[in-house]
Structures are given as C-alpha cells and as structure tokens.
Amino acid sequence: MLTEKQIERYSRNIILKEVGGVGQEKILNSKVLIIGAGGLGAPAALYLAAAGVGTIGIVDGDVVDLTNLQRQIIHFTPDIDKPKVQSAKEKIEQINPDVNVITYNKRLVADNILEVINEYDFIIDGTDNFPAKFLINDACVIARKPFSHGGILRFDGQTMTYTPGNACYRCVFLEPPPKDAVPSCAQAGVLGSVAGILGTIQASEALKYFLEKGELLTNRLLIFNAFNMNFRTVKVKRNPKCPVCGNNPAIKELKDYEQRICELKQN
Amino acid sequence: MIITINGEKETIGKEQITISDLLEIKKVKMPEMVSVELNEEFLDKDSFSNTNIKEGDQVEFLYFMGGGSGN
Fold first, then answer.
1. Residue A39 lies inside a defined structural domain of this protein
2. Residue A44: what are its φ and ψ, rounded to 5°?
C-alpha cells in the first residue's frame, strides 16, 4: 500500500497509465544490483533511487578520485577519497529515504559474484573492463538473472538487455579481446554526458522490466554516437552454440580473465 | 554491388569479395576484435575469409566497447 507521501512523491510515475499505483508498488518491491559506481552506475543509481526501487545494491572497490567527477555525477568534490559505495549510498538516501541501499566495497570476482547477484532481481553492468563484463554475463546466464550490459567509449555507447532464453553478451562478442590486441591503458577519454545517456537507458530498462511494460532491448544491441546523435538497433540472436547460454554450454563455471581496461581503435 | 554496412548503403567496386576483403576495404583496424553479422546471422571469425558477400547483403561490424576511463 502506498502512503500519501509516496503517492505524492511518485505522482509523475503513477499518472502514467502504464505505471499506476500497481506499477509503482512493483518498483518499490524491486531489487536492483548496480555493479560499478562510476560513469554508468552513477546515473543509473540516481534515477533508480528517484523512481523508488526498493533495494539498490552497489558494488565498487574504489574510492572517489578527482578524475571521476567529470562524469560520475553521484560523487561530489567533498567525496574525494571516500569509498565510492559510501558516497553513492549517501546521495541515494538523500534523494529517497524509501530506498534500502546495500553496499559492497569490493570487486566482484568469480568466487563471490554468484552469492551477491542471487539476492537481486535485475543487474546493471556499470563496469569499465572486459573481464568484468564477461564475468557478469556468465554469472547472470548461469544464475538466470536478467541484466543490462553497457559500454561506452569516447562518444559512443552500446547496450543490450539479457533475459533468460535470449541473446547474451557472448552471443554477440564471443570472448574477451585477445590480450596482445589490447593496447596499454591509455587515456581513451569519454564525454561525460555520454555516460549519462547510457546509464539512464540502463535504468529505464530495469524499470520496464519490473513494470512488465514496453519492449526491452532483448535480442537487440542499441548503438549510439553522440557526435551525430545517430541511434540504431542491431538485431542479435541467441547463438545455439554460445559457450555459456547455448544448447551445450562449455562454460559451466566462472573464471576471472586477466586483462586491463581496453582502448579500441575504431576507424 | 550495393550492400548495407552498419545501416548505410554503400557501393563496393568489386563483384566477388569475402568478409575478410571487406574488412580490408573498409580499413577496419584490429579486425580480430570485430564481431560481424551478415544478414542478421553472426559469423564465426574462422569463416571470414571464405564467406562471400553478394548484392543486397546487410553487414554489421560490432566493436567492443568496454569503458572510457583511463584509470
């Protein structure tokens, strides 16, 4: 049951016929895990908090750094050197006291990821390296958890949503890029607002998932370029030979790839 | 022949080319890191050099995007 204050707070959601009081209650009962409190995780967390997601889990093992503030809008100047999960939790609680925030001040690895994601209904990949992205994909496929994959680079963004039975990240990108094809961690750079665009799309996918309304980005890869503001979706399909979600999966256990953050040269 | 690459129609001067040829013609850097979809089907990397492209085909080059931070 929504309180009067909640009806007022969420009125702009509730007025939508696709949401209503019923939909708002679904959101209030939902649990979302955001892996990475950075460029993508920050806007996702802010919008999910505002929407009233009942439980938000945030994972990040880093502290706030000055270079983060250009795009990780949940962190402010006084938060520098504070654990990112603590900084995120503080802002979420200020936006919306209805939200229960659970923080994980650590990195998720093969050994610990399953027990964490099992507690949540929807997972958002806000990580910035390929080993993590593949680990999250594999874990979510194995645990049958829906998740939003996201990645950004300079002025481009890419996202898709996995639900069991549909294309996963490995159906599109079979495995992490080869180690020697990955240049050293140079400053690839990213326009801050590009992170905002993509992270907010990921939050929207989570909300639609709980509302059970609209079409998720399943079997579709959304690609945008902020320079020309071209948004397009590419159809993708579940690969029956996918090593993790296919008919005869070779990957039944999780492992950690060793790799650093990637910079991809694109023509 | 005219084919569609990443949603845009393009004229390719040659009549008989493979995916590998197309990656070269389009000067795709780090082709080992590109995922290729031909007419909405993903191709195994091993088949790039023996998959031919014909008139009207739709090709998608999908690139890894991992993150923009340098730290």
1. yes
2. -60, -45
Q: Which residues pair with A234 in a beta bridge?
A: A221
Closest chain A residue by Cα to residue B27: A267
CA-CA-CA-CA torsion sign (A109, A112, A115, A116): negative
Domain containing A183 equals 11-235
Residue A173 C-alpha, separation from nearest chain B C-alpha, in angstroms: 6
Q: Which residues of A touch B (CB under 8 A)?
A: 38-39, 65, 67, 127-130, 133, 151-154, 156-158, 171-174, 177-178, 181, 185-190, 194-195, 221, 223, 232, 234-237, 239, 261-262, 264-267
Domain extents for chain B?
A: 2-63
CATH assignment of the domain containing A27: 3.40.50.720
A contacts of B7 (beta carbons < 8 Å):
232
Q: pLDDT per residue over A207-228, tens digit each? A: 999 999 999 999 999 999 999 9
* CATH entry 3.40.1440.10 includes domain B2-63: no
pLDDT tens figures, A157-208: 999 999 999 999 999 998 887 664 543 333 578 899 999 999 999 999 999 9
Residue A1 lies in a domain: no
Under an 8 A CB cutoff, do A194 and B40 touch? no
Task: Please report whether residue A259 resides in a domain.
Answer: no
Interface ipTM = 0.87
B2 to chain A, any CB pair closer than 8 A? The answer is no
- For chain A, the domain total comes to 1
Structure tokens at A134: 């593949």
Nearest-angstrom CA–CA distance, A170 and A223: 17
Residues B2, B15: Cα–Cα separation, whole Å: 10
